[in-house]
Amino acid sequence: MGVQASTINLDSSAATTTNNSSEATVNINPNPAWATALAGSNWISNGQTGNPSDPGYTVYPDGTTVLFSESFNLSGNVTAAMLSVMADDTTSVVVNGTTIYAATNLPVSGYPTCSSQPIGCLTSTQENFTLAQLSPYLKSGSNTIQFDVYQKNMVSFGLDYAGSISTSQTPEPASLWMIGSGLVFLGLASRRVRAYQASGRESNN
Q1: 76-104 burial, b for 16+ CB within 10 Å, e for fewer?
Q2: Interatomic CA distance for residues 62 and 64, integer angstroms
Q3: Rg of the chain in Å (alpha carbons)
Q4: Interval 70-85 mean pLDDT
Q5: How far apart are CA 41 and CA 162, in angstroms?
Q6: Residue 194 CB partners (closer than 8 Å, separation 6+)
Q7: What totals of helices (H) and strands (E) does the chain contain, helices first?
């Protein structure tokens, strides 16, 4: 039996992403200045904090931090992984408790707009993580990727991410032994049937 492979997709959405506030994660209309959401994902927040023209639009005060996360299970060895992230104003990225990207630690009053530097709200300031950056912190079983999104320069607030992780798994030795034993048994049974049929033909002659 060959290697078994599988791929999971990661994407920011109200359905897959939780947060640590008292409000549920929601898909939001982006601020018109933001880049379009990554393929397969949505700009998200825990309130209507995207487009200032939307009903119920809310501005979070500077210094607000919301932790968004997505959990998933992996089985086998990680063979491919990628993750792209955008945010307003910025975000840290944490994989299973290890920070793989730390947001620039500037005071609120000195922080640039979200389009000025990574991780920001434009394609030019999105951060793209590779297999080499992600795989050391991924594990077989339960995994969590966390985004600590910071409001540093007022106005809008949100997060967008998308990616995928592929794994491969070789059958365990015990499974291979069982498969081999089954094949041997089938082979022996087939030989016995052929021998029985041959003896029957001889007795009829």
Answers
A1: eebbebbbbbbbbbbbbbbbeeeebbebb
A2: 6
A3: 27
A4: 97
A5: 6
A6: none
A7: 2, 11
150 is written with which tokens?
A: 């910071």
What is the average pLDDT value for the chain, to the nearest integer?
A: 87
The position carrying tokens 């992984």 is 81
- AA identity, residue 168: S
Give the DSSP H or E segment for 132. helix 131-134
Average pLDDT over residues 63-79: 96
pTM: 0.81
SS3 189: helix
Whether the predicted pLDDT of 177 surpasses 70: no
Q: How confident is the model at residue 175 (pLDDT cuts 50, 70, 90)?
A: very low
Do 67 and 159 contact (CB within 8 A), yes or no?
no
**Residues 112 and 153: beta-carbon distance below 8 Å:** yes
What pLDDT was estimated at residue 187? Answer: 53
